[in-house]
Amino acid sequence: MTTSSILLTNIHDILTGRADNGGRAAGPDIRVADGRIQAIGHLAPLPGERVLDATDCVVYPAWVNTHHHLFQSLLKGDPSGLNLSLTDWLAATPYRYRARFDEKLFRLAARIGLVELALSGCGTVADHHYLYYPGMPYDSSAILFEEADALGLRFVLCRGGATQTRQLEAELPSALRPESLADYQEDVARLARQYHDAGPAAMRRIVMAPTTPLYSVQPAELRELAAFGRSLGLRLHSHLSETVEYQQAARGKFNCSPVEFVGEHDWLGPDVWYAHLVKLDAHEIALLGQTGTGIAHCPQSNGRLGSGIAPVRQLEAAGVTVSIGVDGAASNEAADMISETHAAWLMQRARGGQDALPGYAGGTQEGGADAASIEDVVRWGTTGGARVLGLDGLQGITVGACADIAVYSLDDPRYFGLHDPAIGPVASGGRPHLKWLLVDGRIVVEDDRLPGVDIRQLGREAREAVRSLLAAA
Ligand SMILES: [Zn+2]
């Protein structure tokens, strides 16, 4: 054992993020060394070992966020899009503002989003980034990796992009011109060479991720991009079936359902995951399950945009791997994993209750309280996320797993009186005090603080940036 090991002692409760042992481990101590969990049980400190006293703390695996648009972190609550559904909102907020991001604003937005996530206990961030155009004066991909690196987070860049514009962008500046297919592929290949680590404990990954399969590229190109991504050993990601508009478009353009469409173009499988999947018929759920495709469930964004509630429980029963994504902050004013998992827990239950019918109308249940346990939600938000990203070293809290660990101290009155403190971080909502966040065995957050990050200063810069965005409007 190296002397650089860390011992977490006297933990009150451990949720493992795993399906075995009811999703719990007894502890009360966890030893971490060489980036891995070395032991769990009653452990005595080793000479020279750093001991972290976790008395009265609750331990979860660090969260894995599988869908985001970090540049939107300066577009929260934009009044022009606040009460609009998806398509109108896209035009009103993210598309309208995205050409105004220079390097400085973009870097600031990325930092805000990553800091917000880290302080919720998130250790891995997959960003579906689509701010690219020909002749772009800065390398937005490099900035995302730099910012995640500076904080010590795992980062998966889902390289978005489009070879054709939507009507939404028709009247917008030339900075939103689409890329050619060749340029798009060339940049994905460059990013893969520069950043992609295929290893199970990778800190950096690249994913092939055209912004939306129905609009961003021609159908033949969609198939070509799947083959190209796979030839580089990359996973595939996009948006799908977020609203009825997807159903309408697939039926109108291709006379099929959205899931049938992507299936016909090689975009289903265990190496593919989609954000949203709210509007699905039974055949689509079966197809997604049979192919082992994954979902990034984004309940807060789906709620904020009035899109609906994804049938997560039915998807999981069909064989879909479930993960949680916060989606961009332009449609989610709380883009952190605690708020998101709190919403997932409540909304799956609400959906179950919404579906309930009285017995005389054929109903068999009163409500949906069995739709999602806290352990389910923690599993979706941690090892489920690792599975869709292919980060096989992230196996939750178990011996041998990557040491990505969140330690919460439940010292706010909202948690006082809990019979089972383990459920507090997800069930009670609000942001618990993050005593430590470990990523790859290294402490990246201590007592709600990230080394090198001045939160007050970040707040001042954010307010200034919003003023400059509005002034340019
Ligand atoms: Zn999205």
TrEMBL record:
Pfam families: Amidohydro_1. Keywords: Hydrolase. InterPro entries: Amidohydro-rel, Metal-dep_hydrolase_composite, Metal_Hydrolase, MTA/SAH_deaminase. SUPFAM superfamilies: Composite domain of metallo-dependent hydrolases, Metallo-dependent hydrolases. Residues 58-420 form the Amidohydrolase-related domain. It comes from the Bacteria. PANTHER family: AMIDOHYDROLASE-RELATED DOMAIN-CONTAINING PROTEIN, AMINOHYDROLASE SSNA-RELATED. Belongs to the metallo-dependent hydrolases superfamily. ATZ/TRZ family. This is Cytosine/adenosine deaminase. It comes from Noviherbaspirillum suwonense.
